[in-house]
Amino acid sequence: MLLKRVFTRLMGRGLTQPSHRGSSLHRRVLCIGGGNELASMPYHYAAWNKTLLSEQLREGAHLIKSALRLSEREVATFDAVYCSHQLKNHSLHEGGQFLNGIRRLLKPGGFVHLKVPDVTVLMHQMVKSGHDLEDVAYISAAGPISYHDVLWGLHTALGEPGHASTGHKSGYSRKVINRVLSDSGFMDCLHIGERGGPELEVIAAVDRLHDDYRILLGLKSQTSQPPHAQKS
Fold first, then answer.
1. Domain total for the chain?
2. pLDDT tens track for 159-200
3. What is d(CA 95, CA 83) in angstroms, rounded to the nearest whole number?
4. CATH code of the domain containing 108
5. Which residues contact 150 (CB under 8 A, 6 or more apart)?
6. pTM of the prediction?
């Protein structure tokens, strides 16, 4: 028995294996978007190996590809996918296709980090405050955003050459984003944004969000509910 343990250690099988998630320098994140998406990524991705995917030719983009063709990429390539305000540019059906492609790209234990406007909250805010469609709903990194921008797309971008297809094709509430993520096979969903705020910010894992990622994201180490079990 002793000789067997010694032999096992010499072969390296008895040694503690490094986490498949590795250090920050070896973690890979795919950022889906354009413009200054890399610069505006949350600080916890600072040391990660970043790849920027854009649907249009943009400076700094590493991949030029439709987000609906992610399934053509190599399986289990990234530890995380960061997608800020891109999902709304696709219909709900396309959004499911989009998320299925993202899930395919993620390594076991990986997660997607999504941001979309909370249309339900913003429409309630508009009615309650007596605002009109062209009034400012909130201030973003891109400047003032009107209710019209939230529903149909940023008017300043829509007027630029090559941006005619960036109008919004879907809207999301807490309930809808949970359902779409659940339908796409994500098993762990956490809403990390301010509840009742103008934006939904969601972390959804392929299986269970591991504790080391929870620490990285500043979350408590606890088991959360699957997307379909989350309250709206």
1. 1
2. 555 444 567 889 999 999 999 999 999 988 899 988 899 999
3. 12
4. 3.40.50.150
5. 117, 119, 122, 137, 168, 171
6. 0.79
Residue 25 is assigned to a structural domain of this protein: yes
- Which contiguous run of DSSP H or E holds residue 4? helix 2-10
pLDDT the model gives residue 59: 62
Contact 30, 70 (CB under 8 A): no
d(CA 189, CA 209): 8
User: Could you count the other beta carbons within 10 Å of the beta carbon of residue 129?
Assistant: 9
Contact in structure between 115 and 141 (CB atoms under 8 Å): no
Is position 12 within any domain? Answer: no
Residue with tokens 């005619």: 164
What residue numbers bound the domain in which 98 lies?
Answer: 21-117+170-229
Is 2 contained in some domain?
A: no
C-alpha torsion 222→226→228→231, nearest 10: 0
Q: Under a CB-based contact definition with an 8 Å cutoff, are residues 108 and 20 in contact?
A: yes
Crossing angle for the helix pair 92-105 and 174-183, to the nearest 10 degrees: 50
Q: pLDDT digits over 100-143, tens only? A: 999 999 998 899 999 999 999 999 999 999 999 999 999 887 78
